[in-house]
């Protein structure tokens, strides 16, 4: 056979080898990379010993990098426990009963299996050994060892609450002072080992239907801040003070508190600063009227960071200046990374929450399933 006759066969053989090699390599996707928590046969590996943070070397450059958790579910909320020196444990709540924990120091994920496929909307943790979640259909559970016998498991608190509406958020000053909020003015408070329901009328909530409550934050002092559809409610001891005038026409989605001042993230491009004396200052990071802010976090240095809900994903930062000027940081990979991996951070991802330990060390989560870490990456 002549070389001219052999040439098509040779080319076809090289093409087949290339395709075979490619099929054995981890594939990139818009969810942030390959599934490093799955085996090659597609089965789940629940060992939690995943030491893979997806992406090429950053060379110490500060930027956004996807931490791949391997489950393409909507991420509703993120909470973290600061362990000092830049280390933290990250707790992420998502749809389909997803509860995940990430160790920054070990660069490893661990799933906490939940016997439910309900959407987990809120999560708060004191440590890996005490986690509380809430979600759709009245989902409310604590992951703990309440008897101190080394038996960590989920306690089905929802079996005794009598609540079936969607619960949207949960927070605590500590494991003995927990609050959860949800649709139709639902407020639950853990007293002892029993969740008690607060009468909406006693809390000053009005309307038919009652407003949905989306966010709750509990200070160490026990003071409670709750945000919802057109209302901001403060509970201090037996005193419950709702404010509807300053928040009419806004739906509040998230709260963070520092120095007694509450910051609330809402729709209609609204960010609110609520002071203990009742003064409320409205901020507008962007004039785009359809903008929504689903997550807000106060950095240790005092700056306020708000996670924008609409694409393109942006983190807005306010340093307290009197002109109400906010800086914007687009959630995308650094240029050199983006050129090599254009899908490294999905530019269409909508941010659902934000949490961190420093201005150059925080995490945002998205409705498209990404968990994205902003830091100086090696």
> End-to-end distance, in Å?
54 Å
Assembly level: single chain
Fourth-level CATH superfamily: YVTN repeat-like/Quinoprotein amine dehydrogenase
Unreliable stretches (pLDDT < 50, length at least 5) are 1-54
Query: Strand order across the biggest sheet?
Result: 1-28-27-26
What percent strand? 35-45%
The amount of helix comes to under 10%
How many domains? The number is 1
Shape: globular
The first-level CATH class name? Mainly Beta
Query: What does the main sheet amount to?
Result: 4 strands, antiparallel
Keywords:
single chain, 378 residues, mainly beta, Methylamine Dehydrogenase, Chain H, four-stranded antiparallel sheet
Summarize the structure.
The chain is mainly beta.
Account of the protein in words:
- By secondary structure, this protein is mainly beta.
- It has one domain (42-376): Methylamine Dehydrogenase, Chain H (7 Propeller), CATH 2.130.10.10.
- Helix content is 8%, strand content 43%.
- The chain contains three helices and 28 strands.
- The chain has helices at 3-23, 158-161, 335-340, and strands at 62-66, 75-84, 87-94, 98-103, 108-111, 120-127, 130-135, 140-144, 153-155, 167-174, 177-182, 186-191, 194-197, 213-218, 224-228, 232-236, 239-243, 252-258, 261-266, 271-274, 280-283, 293-298, 304-308, 314-318, 326-330, 351-358, 361-366, 371-376.
- A four-stranded antiparallel sheet has the order 1-28-27-26, with no helix packed on it. Strands 2-3-4-5 form a four-stranded antiparallel sheet, with no helix packed on it.
- Strand 18 and strand 19 (261-266) form a beta hairpin.
- The longest helix has 21 residues, at 3-23.
- It is globular.
């Amino acid at each position: 056979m002549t070389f001219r006759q052999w040439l098509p066969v040779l080319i076809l053989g090289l093409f087949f080898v290339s395709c075979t090699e490619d099929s054995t390599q981890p594939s990139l996707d818009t969810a942030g990379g390959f599934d490093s928590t799955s085996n090659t046969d597609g089965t789940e590996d629940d060992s939690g010993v995943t030491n893979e943070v997806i992406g090429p070397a950053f060379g110490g450059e500060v930027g956004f990098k996807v931490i791949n958790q391997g489950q393409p579910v909507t991420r509703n909320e993120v909470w973290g426990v600061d362990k000092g020196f830049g280390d933290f444990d990250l707790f992420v709540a998502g749809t389909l009963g997803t509860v995940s924990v990430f160790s920054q120091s070990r660069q490893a994920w661990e799933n906490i299996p939940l016997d439910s496929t309900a959407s987990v909307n809120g999560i708060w943790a004191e440590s890996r050994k005490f986690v509380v979640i809430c979600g759709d259909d009245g989902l409310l559970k604590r992951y703990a060892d309440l008897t101190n016998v080394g038996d960590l498991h989920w306690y089905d608190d929802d079996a005794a609450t009598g609540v079936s509406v969607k619960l949207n958020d949960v927070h605590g000053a500590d494991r003995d002072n927990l609050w959860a909020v949800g649709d139709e003015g639902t407020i639950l408070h853990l007293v002892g080992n029993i969740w008690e329901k607060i009468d909406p009328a006693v809390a000053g909530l009005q309307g038919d239907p009652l407003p949905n409550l989306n966010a709750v934050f509990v200070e160490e002092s026990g003071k409670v801040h709750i945000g919802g559809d057109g209302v901001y409610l403060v509970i201090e001891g037996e005193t419950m003070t709702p404010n509807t005038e300053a928040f009419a026409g806004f739906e509040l989605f998230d709260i963070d508190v520092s120095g007694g001042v509450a910051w609330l993230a809402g729709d209609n491009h609204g960010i609110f600063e609520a002071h203990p004396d009742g003064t409320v200052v409205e901020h507008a990071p962007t004039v785009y009227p359809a903008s929504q802010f689903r997550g807000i976090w106060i950095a240790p240095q005092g700056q306020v960071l708000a996670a924008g809900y609409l694409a393109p994903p942006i983190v807005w930062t306010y340093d307290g200046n009197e002109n109400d000027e906010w800086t914007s940081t687009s959630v995308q990979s650094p240029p050199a990374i983006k050129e090599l991996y254009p899908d490294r951070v999905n530019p269409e991802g909508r941010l659902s929450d934000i949490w961190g330990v420093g201005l150059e060390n925080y995490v945002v989560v998205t409705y498209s399933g990404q968990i994205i870490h902003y830091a100086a990456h090696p």
